[in-house]
Amino acid sequence: MRIIIATVLSFLFFALYDHFFIPKNPPLTETTTLEQNATPSTTASAPADVKSASSVDVAGAPKSSSNVGEIIATIKAAGYEVQIDRLGRIAKFYLEEGKYKDDKGERFQLIDASQSLLPLEIRFSDKAINEDAFVMSYSADKDKIDVSENGSSVVLTQTLSSVVVTKTITFFPSGKYDLHVKLSSPYEYFLSPGVRPNMAVDSYTFHGVLIKKSDGSIKTIADGDAKSDDHFANAKIVAGADKYYTTFFYELDKGLESVVSVGQNKNPLLFVKGEEDFKLSGYIGPKEHVKLKAISPELTDVIEYGFFTFISKPLFALLAFLHGIFGNWGWAIVAMTITVRLVLYPLTYKGMVSMNKLKELAPKVKELQKKYADDKQKLNTHMMELYKKNGANPMGGCLPIILQIPVFFAVYRVLQNAIELKGAPWIFWVHDLAIKDPYFILPVLMGITMFLHQRITPTTFTDPMQEKIMKFLPLIFTFFFVTFPAGLTLYWFTNNVASIVQQFYVNKLFAKKHEEQKVEK
Length: 521
Description:
5-stranded mixed sheet, 21% strand
């Protein structure tokens, strides 16, 4: 029973400590813009296969340069709007879909001109050229572009003292873009996909930099955790991401020579090493599984679930499949919860049966504890004989629960990170599964069902303090779940209902067994 309490409290701590007690990152401001000019630097410790990406310093953005520049081109698609500034960077990126609007009805802005590092920003290794690059303006071949189904292009040209830079950007309706950079003369430079969007930052989901390395493995560097320049040869994806949104470059065949530098507050900054004639693709937008998969299945790796990703990914696939059947994310969560319960049924059933057996033996255990109160060795010996004789396992109720914990954590991660739940209604009063229940009905129902499950679950408490802790857990969970997303609370409520049904069934089996034993006597 102590293990069960410890497990429940561990989950509670995991889910709630980050949510309430770890300070959130402040929004990016104009102050950080001028200070956060960290750049890839020379390092003798860089791996041999990325020497070309780390052999020289890259000059930073000059402190005298203004980040809020003139807009020279505006690109509009059904789902987004892009504004390009005079330095050839994506200075503003707006989402146009209805669910991506705030309480005032204003559209979400993923890229802000005040951010320290903007998508498509070029930094030259030669400091003189770099200074020039942050003074001379680009020209655009057209100032307004409507994105067609097959993509629409804009050509940006910047004439510097010793090199002409040409950027051809082709935008697609999905949020994807193709970039072609050409230099009239060979100079070393680095290009950035920009810093992560700053729309949905909290302390209990990942925000920072994600690299899909050449071997397919994922490397993440959270904000505040960058220690020194990291170099990645032939990286497939280099992404900045918050909970729901991302900006990234990708090259899935030959890869990108990438560098992660240390910015202000030890936040990671992304760069890729360019070439005289350089092509790559990029994406800015929400981390929607369907949208990313349509571009390339590999891009779904940007959706990061943490340590339990290997369980979370198939769980999300199941959730998406069920959504295809029900057409409602709320009912998909209910169906997924029931499906998971059915898969784990053998484990939970075994645990419940074991708890019932231990409850039956509780009076005999107390007798032994009285009889051998001064001899722990004899007490343990006789208790083990008692359990063996009656086919009971003191760990039988704990191990099944412990084995299920990774699944619970994985579901927690899926429901916390799934942008698909944003703006998704369930029934009646629940209009958005990604935010808290506005009337607190689900948290209250969750607490009530947790209490009911406790009432019908056999216990073998010998410590009054443990018993008090368990009695107060429904109230504690209700209090904290008040602020949790409705989708997560719906999962927990459904799981409680399934547990009650299963416990009733097991209790009924034991009651029937007792009746049969009485008849036999």
